[in-house]
Design a protein that fits this description.
Radius of gyration: 58 Å
Keywords: Coiled coil
Largest sheet: 2 strands, antiparallel
Strand content: under 5%
Order of helices and strands: HHHHHHHHEEHHHHHEHHEHEHHEH
Number of helices: 19
Shape: flat
Protein name: Translin associated factor X interacting protein 1
CATH topology of one domain: Recoverin, domain 1
Mean pLDDT: 80
Number of strands: 6
Helix content: 55-70%
Length: about 650
């Protein structure tokens, strides 16, 4: 009996623990309905399917034998047949409840399927509406295109109608003029008819009809002439104002124009000053950033200063020669000197140079294929050879290019067979020794980095300065006072600033403690050592010339107000040159322009010609070409008017 009660209890618990679908409410009345009522469909308009879940505890029947219905202690147990009959009834009751719940489960499945069908129907309806909206959008776009075409058509019709109206108006004017002419002819005929009628009845006026007719004719002619003059005066002077008003308005206009010109000039000056200040500001910022980057790089990679005395035992000539080479040079220059010494040693070890071939990029004097003998001259021999080449170049008419002259000079000097060997030997030497003044200048002219006029003009300037000092030396002692020295420098270089004159005097041997009466051996300023190196005074002259050229080109760039990658036209460059240097003559300007645009002076268009606008060049290229030639300031720049 106990086993039967435990089995019934477990069965009842299992029935209570079965999962119930959420969203469905069950009660006792619902379970009592028959199957036809349970299969009834939910209303069509019901949208919400989620209902609060309720427990099924009220659907469970009480099971005898549980804790609440246990018999009391001491009661006599029921009979065996009575207990089995009661458990069977409980099981039958539970099975009926299970069958009722299975019908509810089937109904839930049906409701779920109906909801899914509704969702699919709603999605299909939405897709249908979207397709309809897309079709409507396409129709509207087509309608807009059609309206646009109609508008264009109407605009063309309006243009055509305006044209027809203008033609009709011209036709109307011609008809009006023809009508006036016809009326004038009719009036003339009427007047003639009246004259004839008057001539036939002389008694009316009491005078001679011929005389009256003639007088009338003359009067009419005068009237016609007067009318024509009046019409002419109206046509010519209909819009004329009185002279007094005209003069008043003209004076007012002139005053306003002067004020406008003054304001424009002031604005242009302020704009230029602003641009210059902005450029200075930007350049200052760039310099600041560059210095900061260099400082960080130096701080990161800085190393102790090298001990240059270690080179004394390596350089040929020992400590004495190294002291002579290192005197007055910084670390960078000492590195160049050391590299030159190493390179000269390697150059002496070479017996042959490989030929560079016959390419277009190869200079004409180096075009050779094969091995070329190294003549192995010393540095002094190369310098003397270059000096002789310059002397011969200055003595001739300079009809051929400098590279061709150099090769011809070597042919005349060493013969056709050894000319190419000497060309390679000299080229390798001057390319190596950058610190030597003669070699570096000859290399720059030979490779086209400088025009030979730069070297020639500088030599002429030095010679002219020596001549002025010699003329001032009345006793021919080779001595000048510091006052004479300063006066000659200022007269020879009137465009140099006081600071530049001071630098030249200090390079010549002047000190702040020197007096004007101190004597100076001026001839020693122009001497050269055995390697062609000039004295510091001549080197300072050359350095100032290069700085002045760079400053002149920088002023030209600022005047053009363009970036380096932009193009500049011929008239713009001509105007900028005349603006920064008004003393330039036409020939010098044409020389600069010819160099900048790489055009012969004979092919340059005249000033004001329309062809000038078609000649353009990139600004950076033009400035690099001007850097090659001898370009310098001719006169002082006009001071800008104060704002």
């Amino acid at each position: 009996m106990a086993s039967q009660q435990s089995w019934c209890h477990s069965f009842s618990s299992a029935s209570r623990l079965q999962p119930q679908p959420s969203g469905v409410t069950m009660d006792d009345s619902f379970l009592t309905k028959d199957k036809s009522t349970q299969k009834h469909k939910l209303p069509q308009k019901r949208r919400t399917l989620e209902l609060p879940a309720t427990p099924l505890s009220h659907c469970q029947a009480p099971v005898p034998g549980e804790a609440g219905n246990l018999p009391t202690q001491g009661a006599p147990p029921a009979g065996r047949g009575h207990g089995f009959h009661r458990g069977t009834e409980v099981a039958a009751h539970q099975r009926e409840k299970i069958r009722a719940l299975e019908a509810l489960k089937a109904k839930l499945v049906i409701v779920n399927e109906e909801c899914n069908e509704r969702i699919l129907a709603m999605r299909a309806e939405e897709r249908h509406e979207i397709s309809l909206l897309k079709k409507e959008k396409m129709n509207l776009l087509k309608f807009i295109d059609k309206k646009n075409e109609e508008m264009i058509s109407l605009q063309s019709q309006v243009t055509k109608l305006r044209k027809n109206l203008a033609e009709e108006y011209l036709h109307y004017l011609s008809e009006r003029d023809a009508r006036k002419i016809l009326i004038a002819d009719l009036n003339k005929l009427r007047y003639q008819q009246e004259d004839m009628s008057l001539a036939q009845s002389p008694g009316i006026w009491g005078e001679d009809p011929v005389k009256l007719t003639l007088a009338l004719k003359m009067t009419r002619q005068d009237l016609t002439r007067t009318q024509m003059e009046l019409n002419t005066m109206k046509a010519n002077f209909g819009d004329v104002v009185p002279r007094r008003d005209f003069e008043t308005q003209e004076k007012t206009n002139k005053d306003l124009q002067e004020q406008l010109d003054s304001l424009r000039a002031s604005y242009e000056e302020v704009r230029k000053e602003h641009e210059i200040l902005m450029q200075l500001h930007m350049s200052t910022l760039k310099e600041r950033d560059q210095f900061y980057s260099e400082l960080q790089e130096i701080q990161r990679t800085s190393t102790p200063r090298p001990d240059w005395s270690k080179c004394e035992d390596v350089v040929a000539g020992g400590p004495e020669r190294w002291k002579m080479l290192a005197e007055g040079k910084n670390s960078d220059q000492l590195v160049d000197v050391l590299l030159e010494e190493i390179g000269s040693g390697l150059l002496r070890e070479k017996d042959f140079f490989p030929g560079l071939g016959y390419g277009e990029a190869i200079p004409a004097f180096l075009r050779f294929d094969g091995l070329v003998e190294n003549k192995k001259p010393n540095k002094k021999d190369v310098i003397n050879l270059l000096k002789d080449a310059w002397k011969e170049r200055l003595a001739e008419e300079q009809k051929e290019t400098f590279p061709d002259f150099f090769f011809n000079f070597l042919e005349h000097r060493f013969g056709p067979n050894d000319a190419i060997a000497w060309a390679y030997t000299v080229f390798e030497n001057i390319k190596l020794f950058h610190s030597n003044e003669v070699m570096s200048q000859f290399y720059a002219v030979l490779m086209g980095k400088w025009s030979e006029n730069v070297y020639i003009t500088q030599k002429e300037t030095v010679a002219q300065l020596l001549k002025e000092m010699t003329n001032a030396d009345s006793k021919n002692e080779g001595l000048l006072t510091m006052e004479q020295f300063s006066t000659i420098l200022k007269s020879t270089f009137p465009l140099k600033t006081e600071e530049q004159i001071q630098e030249l005097m200090e390079a010549g041997g002047w000190y702040p403690s020197s007096s004007n009466a101190d004597l100076l051996n001026y001839r020693s300023l122009f001497m050269e050592d055995e390697e062609g190196q000039s004295e510091p005074f001549v080197q300072k002259l050359w350095k100032q010339y290069m700085n002045e050229k760079a400053e002149y080109l920088q002023q030209l760039k600022q005047e053009l107000c363009k970036e380096l990658h932009e193009v500049v036209t011929l008239p713009k460059l001509r105007g900028a040159l005349m603006s920064i240097d008004p003393s330039l003559d036409k020939q010098t300007v044409n020389t600069y322009i010819s160099q900048a645009f790489q055009l012969p002076e004979s092919q340059l268009p005249e000033e004001g010609d329309e062809k000038e606008e078609g000649i353009v060049e990139i600004l950076q290229t033009a400035l690099e070409r001007l850097q090659v030639i001898d370009i310098r300031r001719v006169g002082p720049r006009e001071p800008e008017p104060a704002s």
